[in-house]
Amino acid sequence: MRRVRWFDFKTSMDLDRIAKKLAERSFGGDVTDGFIVRSLRDDSLTATYVERNSYRETLLDPFGDEFIQDRISYKTIDFVLYSTFPGLEVFDAPRSILGLNALLSDVLDFDMILLPIQLDVLKWVQRVGDMSPIIVKAIQASGVPLTDGIVGDLVAKSSKNLLDRIDEIPGLGLAQIKKIQVSFPDLTATRGGVFTSNATYASTFEAEPEFIRLVRESLIGVIAESR
Predict the structure, then answer these.
(1) In the chain, domain spans
(2) Mind listing the pLDDT tens digit for each residue in 2-13?
(3) Is the pLDDT of residue 205 over 80?
(4) How many CB atoms lie within 10 A of CB 63?
(5) Of 170, 100, 108, residue with least CA distance to 139
(6) How far is 142 from 175, CA to CA, in rounded Å?
(7) Residues with Cβ within 8 Å of residue 162, at least 6 apart in sequence
(8) pLDDT top residue among 187 and 173
(9) Mean pLDDT on 187-192
(10) How many angstroms separate the Cα of 66 from the Cα of each of 5, 27, 56, 62, 72?
(11) pLDDT tens-digit profile of 83-124?
């Protein structure tokens, strides 16, 4: 599965200057965290954040005696910086990108703002559907009104396209839709993904860069409409 999340990233620096700043903090040697610049284009900068952790692990040999083994682990985060909104695209990020955020802020002399994005995920999926055939297989929502003063969570599934049956789901219009599972009939029935209200798209297949671009442009359109 390939997961992509977008953030609202702003800085006064252009991409050329950012690339030079990242190159000055290249990962390697005795550096415990740093960047690897992959490519620089007119409107985007592709790079990888690398963090090395060294630790010692206590193990037992076959005779029951303890010995110490030095270990090294690496955490990497692939990302793209854009000259326009949303600014930051992160691939397969862990639950927290605190390390990336902290080092990026330090390298850019704290001349940056990084904010999470929240959006209407149903409008996002609908906009993607305007560009590419899409089938909504499941919807997950919270805050669904059940009765007076009582709300609950809901997971709606159907063998048909739920996108055409939104109005038939009781209470959905008053709820907060969190996730939408989709499939793409133009690809194969097994190829699909999950859209999340925190501006994340998780694909069940190795999505082509062109498709990720389509998803990103759809997100940009939804945010622009909401402002």
Answers:
(1) 2-116, 121-226
(2) 899 999 999 999
(3) no
(4) 5
(5) 170
(6) 6
(7) 136, 137, 138, 139, 156, 169
(8) 173
(9) 62
(10) 43, 34, 12, 10, 19
(11) 999 999 999 978 889 999 999 999 999 999 999 999 999 999
Please name every residue paired with 179 in a beta bridge, in sequence order, or none if there are none.
140, 196
Please give the C-alpha separations between residue 55 and each of 30, 58, 73, 98, in angstroms, as whole numbers. 15, 10, 8, 20
Contact 172, 122 (CB under 8 A): no
Q: Are 164 and 133 in contact (CB under 8 A)?
A: no
Whether the upstream peptide bond of residue 145 has omega within 30° of 0, thus cis, is no
**With contact defined as beta carbons under 8 Å apart, do 111 and 12 qualify?**
yes
| Number of other CB atoms surrounding residue 138 within 10 Å | 14
Please state the pTM of the whole predicted model.
0.87
- For 186, the token pair is 């133009």
